[in-house]
Amino acid sequence: MAQEYNLAIFRGRLKFKDNRSKIWGVFIFLSILTAIEVGLGMARPEALVNTKWFQFIPILTMTPLTFIFIILTIIKAYYITWDFMHMRDEVKFLRRLIVWSAVFFIIYFVVLILLEGQYMYEVLTDGLIKFDF
Amino acid sequence: MEATVVKTRTEGTIWGGANKPLKASYGKLMLWIFLFSDSLTFTGFLVSYGLTRFRFADSWPIADEVFNHIPFLHGVEEPMIFVAFMTFLLIFSSVTMVLAVDAGARMKQNMVTFYLFLTLCGGLTFLSSQAFEWATFIKGSYGAVETTGGNILQFVDTNGDRVSVRDFALADDSPREVHAKNKGLWHVGEPATPTTVSLDQVKEGFLANDNILVRIQEKDAQGQHIILSREESKAKFFDEGVMVVEGANLIHNEYGHRLFANYFFFITGFHGFHVSIGITLLFTVFFNSIVGTYEKRKSYEMVEKVGLYWHFVDLVWVFVFTFFYLV
Question: What is the longest distance spanned by two Cα atoms in chain A?
Fold first, then answer.
């Protein structure tokens, strides 16, 4: 299988000499991201949990810390898909077929559930249960 | 016979058949589509978890207090460490899998076998770790009391440290009466996992120790569970406490809301099921690689396809880890 490998990550800024070192490089990058996530998860710094300066995303109990976790997770997912699953080397049409469809459905579903959840939360906290013993 | 051969308009065009329009083989393409649909399944589960979790955001158990066990280190309570190890392990097994695929592209049978073996080890260790998590989760740690409304009361001492129900419950030497049909409800049997202490023992233990307070599910503005005063604790416990809950099953659990254990088992169980399937596939490919099936076939593409599945399992775990343990 003579395949041409795309050996540059970070939009061409970091180029590896062969496929194997690219794999180890991506692994190191993912480990760093995981370590950051776990470190933040254990430390939970007050400044990030305090939501006072994050008013413009008032979705349920989203704190800046949660936002950082989700961003880091999406970055990890991108690199796992792109390099470990070789999406970077596939034909553009296949990439878009899988990734754009998945992203569209997932975003649609998440937004829908957030909206419905917000409504449910308001109704169920205000209206129905008189006394939760 | 050439006169009767019919040529269609599409022969020779990119979508006309007998070639690979997307440069990927049929098997690889179908696997991508399967992974796409499976990721939507997991999305459904995780989103419903998110919905429930935020509906009950002010009374959901705190993950750091529940998932703080480490195998072989009894009594050491460190949140997140073991789960971080599991995540790292799965990412590492993904790396060895990619290296196996890469070696397969260069037709190096020994390297493929070696890296597949490493991936298998990683996967099996992950499954055992998950089994350990389940076992400690089901066994429980401190025990709790359930109220008439289905909420959970946990116990702390005046310093704010958690106290185990079994520690302060008074010992009761009288033999436990086994439930019989003529001595109570005829349609109710013995509980499958009877608790080690009864509600009365806990009540008497509570009265005997003045420094025990009750901690309810509701959380204050800082996200900590509210601890009641001694008088409020006594009132809450004696008025509303109905049964002792130790550990967890699908109906109730000692950590808090009933759905917490339910979602934990379902989502990590579904993921663990996928990991088991991945291990079966890995073992098949490992065996075939040793025997030389892919050398004969002159292509290691099967290894690549199983690799795609294994990376998908890793990807899902990254999301489950974030939404269950971190957020």
Answer: 69
**Interface contact flag, B95 A27, Cβ < 8 Å:** yes
Q: Who among B94, B299, B319 is closest to A73 (CB)?
A: B319
- List C-alpha distances in Å: B273 to B95, B99, B266: 21, 24, 10
Nearest CA in chain A to B153: A133
Nearest to A73 among B79, B92, B322 (CB): B322
CB contacts < 8 Å between A and B, how many? 129
The answer to whether A25 and A16 have CB atoms below 8 angstroms apart is yes
pTM above 0.95, yes or no: no
Chain B within 8 Å of A23 (Cβ-Cβ)? yes
Query: What ipTM was predicted for this assembly?
Result: 0.81
A7/B contact by beta carbon, under 8 A: no
B250 CB within 8 Å of a chain A CB:
no
Cα gap B308→B33, rounded to integer Å: 11
Per-residue pLDDT tens listing for chain B (327 residues): 556 777 777 777 777 777 787 888 888 889 999 999 999 999 999 989 988 887 787 788 888 888 888 888 877 777 788 888 899 899 999 999 999 999 998 999 999 999 999 999 999 999 999 999 999 999 888 889 999 888 899 999 888 888 888 888 887 777 777 777 787 788 877 776 678 888 888 888 888 888 899 999 888 877 788 999 899 889 989 988 888 988 888 888 899 888 999 999 999 999 999 999 999 999 999 999 999 998 998 888 999 999 999 999 999 998 898 888 877
The CATH architecture of the domain made up of B28-140+259-326 is Up-down Bundle (1.20)
Say which of B22, B43, B44 has its CB closest to residue A93.
Answer: B22
Distance from CA of A56 to the nearest CA of B (A): 18
Picking from B271, B248, B52, B221, the residue whose alpha carbon sits closest to that of residue B137 is: B248
Domain ranges for chain B: 28-140+259-326, 144-174+191-246
